[in-house]
Design a protein that fits this description.
Distance between the termini of chain A: 22 Å
Shape of chain A: globular
Strand order of the largest sheet of chain B: 1-5-4-2-3
Oligomer: heterodimer
Number of helices of chain B: 6
Order of helices and strands of chain A: HHHHH
Shape of chain B: elongated
CATH topology of the largest domain in chain B: Oxidized Rhodanese, domain 1
Order of helices and strands of chain B: HEHEHEHEHEH
Strand content of chain A: under 5%
Largest sheet of chain A: none
CATH superfamily of the largest domain in chain B: Rhodanese-like domain
Helix content of chain B: 40-55%
Structural class of chain A: mainly alpha
Radius of gyration of chain B: 21 Å
Strand content of chain B: 5-15%
Number of helices of chain A: 5
Largest interface: A-B, 31 and 35 residues
Number of strands of chain B: 5
Largest sheet of chain B: 5 strands, parallel
Chain lengths: 136, 166
Amino acid sequence: MLAMVLRLMLGVTFIVASVNKIGEPEKFATIIYGYYLFPGWLINLSAIVVPFVELVAGVALVAGVYPRSALVIINALLFVFIGAIAINLVRGHQFDCGCFSLAASDTVESAVWLLVRDLGLLFCGAYLWFKSSPVA
Amino acid sequence: MISLDDLKGVFILLLVSIVSAFVCNQWSGSGIALFGQWDKTLGVVSPMKKNTVVDQGREINDLDTMVKFLDRQDCTVVDVRLKERFDQGHLPGAISLPLARFDEVVGEFFEAHPPEACVVLYCAGRECLDSHRFAERLVEFGYMNVRVFSGGFAEWKAKGLRVEQG
């Protein structure tokens, strides 16, 4: 029961997070640039592809289609998000994560909160991964 | 452990994602170019949206050229940042026409400047698109000689050049 609730929560979270980014790739690309971590050639490609990876993985997790594969993708994305936020926090660089809303949220407090939230989501993802059994 | 079936699923989900992403980006009105302009040494950075407002041909990318434009009597230099920022410091001789108030202030500007006038716009710096947006609006209204100083106020101030206040 707990696993099902966590699966739905994690899947819906990723679906919701993808919607604004898909609608406004220009803003999302600018937000990725604002991390000052990625090479220029990767920024637009990431802004185009990452939201769809979030959407498809989220839908797959909710629908139970390749759920373990969806968890691999979601956990990998969370690793990248956590790494990017943590590096910028350590550098003291303020930025907008663009996680859910594309509105600016570039304060240290909000970045710490985002880091805690993503760590919580990663914990859920890891729990679900270890609870799920490989497809026979 | 990740099984072979897990990896197969990852491949399929990623394939669906990538194909959907590029198809959607191609057909969506809000789609962006596959590669943006993120090199500040080349001018204002931009994801290069379809129907982008960024015309790099308009950009003045070096301070020496900007100083020459500033010395020209027939050129109007326009600061499109917020009025508060303008008051804190701006390029010598620049006038304030904030992009956010374009519709309010543009009538007066049209009266004072004919469409063939030389206009140089600037905003905060190379990560700011407002001067390009402003330029696009002016071009829509028939202005033919509109330039954008890509370095903006940040670059001007960083070089220790003279700044006016108020």
